[in-house]
Amino acid sequence: MLLLFLAYFGGVLTILSPCILPVLPFVFARADQPFRKSGLPLLAGMVVTFAVVASLATVGGGWAVRANQFGRGAALALFGIFGLTLLFSSLAERLLRPLVRLGSKLQSSDAGPSVTNSFLLGVGTGLLWAPCAGPILGLILTGAALGGASAHTALLLLAYAAGAATSLSIALFAGGRVFGALKRSLGAEEWVRRILGVAVLAGVVAVAFGLDRGVLTRLSLASTSNLEQRLVDRLHPRSKQALASNDQMMMAPNDQMMAGNDQMMAGKDQMMAGNQQMKSAAGGSDKAKSALIPLPELSGATAWINSTPLTPASLRGKVVLVDFWTYSCINCLRTLPYIKAWNDKYKDSGLVIIGVHTPEFPFEKDESNVRKAVRDLGISYPVAMDNNYAIWRNFNNEYWPADYFVDASGHIRFHHFGEGGYEEAEQWIRTLLEEANHRPLPGSATKIAASGTEAPPDSDDVKSPETYIGYERAQNFASPGGLNQDDPQLYTAPDQLALNQWALAGQWRDAGQIATLLSPTGAIVYRFHARDLHLVLGPAKGGKPIRFRVTIDGKAPGADHGVDVDSDGYGTVKDDRLYQLIRQHGGVQDRTFRIEFLSPGVQAYSFTFG
After folding, report:
1. For residues 224 and 134, is the Cβ–Cβ distance under 8 A?
2. Which end of the chain is less crowded, N or C, counting CB atoms within 10 A of the terminal residue's CB?
3. What does the longest C-alpha to C-alpha distance in the chain come to?
């Protein structure tokens, strides 16, 4: 229920957002007509259309986006005709008789406004409306994309649109009174119609040229982002805690908004009830063990690497470790030395490790990329590619990395989220193997000395959070004018940045999850506080390598360079993956990082620190 309120309140706040400006003329063009027969059906059409289109776009892929573009084009044409009927009704009727008759019919009729016609105009408005993606809408959309199609997702989007309609209806009701007073006091009905016609045509031009998604998004006028973020943090403190500990694990975006789904949380609560109950079952009665969660289905994987498809039935009698990971996640990479060592040490005793690769970024869905990462990382155990989040949802999982320990009877006995806890995790492996084999295991806990990106973080001195470059989850962006969503923009970086602020320099196109460099050269600047700095990058389209140079406080990193950079700061982006760019060896303090790309086409995703 709290999530529905949050979505509704986010919609109400859109009246204060500059991105609402282009559709206001379409709404107010009928402000002089009865609200129940004109304004209300129009807003209803807008709400339903936005919810349907947004739901399809989150799960439907490219075809849904293309269909919406055709719908937007048709709506622009319709409102263009509508604006002409308001501005030059007699001239338009002579020049464009068939089309203008349709526009005039939608505008009014002798019997008064038609509910059906108003609803159709609302459908057109819903196709054209592109609200600014603040924290609330951004979390809804990214959660829907990862969580899959559901009635709950559609209901959240419907609540968001209903909130926008509520604030617009208040404005429309007040606007109707103003227009009525103007016509009565000035006798200027024709001039009011013409002013509305000009406003409608201006709105058509603004939408056609992308001003609703570009310039207006960058305006700081009456921004609601800070208010929305405070509300999200207040109602979902779990998200805030996860961000505070992001050096240990990553929370999936769908958790931040969708974890309130009653069905999902029921399954999670049952499992979390959990480790204490699981511990009490160790070596206990059959009744205690029967209360445990059975290993969920592993069906739904888009591919299997290093193995044929595995099932709970085929794994019966084995001790199983299911590890959720993704290859660009720094937290996952830092757990890999332990996972691989356990596989080498205990596989002959009956341990089966399954790496469930659930992608965060689009490039992690490419099978060739994942196979290369598995090979480069030295992973020999089975890996299931979970591109559609099917196995993720079967486990009601929320985090990378997440480990589930299954006994030989097929029940989950222990789980662990994030980094650390390796001794306890290995002890559970040994306990479950000793139960299955009915004899003690020789040896002791595994000692690991990891290096490079797999080395443990300096958690006590990390003051910089994971930072996304795509606008859907971007925060603390400092380039003047803000991010221009989906359209090319020439950015500049300020001379000075506050801690955890970042900026772009050069011409970039910033999309929901990714920023692409368009100019011959360009840069990203970040003011950070951590021992290690990583950046997820990809080469230009077609795999063309991109050379770059890194500096710290304007100088070459020297001994503080990461494994993917030399001491002079030079490196090359060859693959879609995480790059370690900085590893400081002295005292950690606030530093200014800059990466300069020496040719166009590089793709940047997110910063992580350690």
Report:
1. yes
2. N
3. 97
Whether the CA torsion 344, 348, 353, 354 is positive or negative: it is positive
**Cα 439 vs. chain centroid, distance in angstroms?**
48
What kind and span of H or E run contains 523? strand 522-528
Q: How far apart are CA 526 and CA 335, in angstroms?
A: 26
SS3 278: helix
Interatomic CA distance for residues 297 and 396, integer angstroms = 12
Q: Given this model, what pLDDT does residue 303 score?
A: 96
Does the predicted TM-score (pTM) go above 0.90? no
Helix (H, G, I), strand (E, B) or coil at 71: helix
Quickly list DSSP for 439-496.
SPPPS-PPP----GGGSPP-GGG-----EE-STTT--SB-STT---BTSEEEE---S-
Separation of alpha carbons 57 and 144, rounded Å: 10
Over residues 3-19, the pLDDT tens digits come to: 677 677 777 776 665 55
Interval 297-311 mean pLDDT? 96
Interior angle at CA 118, CA 117 and CA 120, nearest 5: 65
- Across 117-275, the runs of DSSP E, i.e. the strands, are 250-251
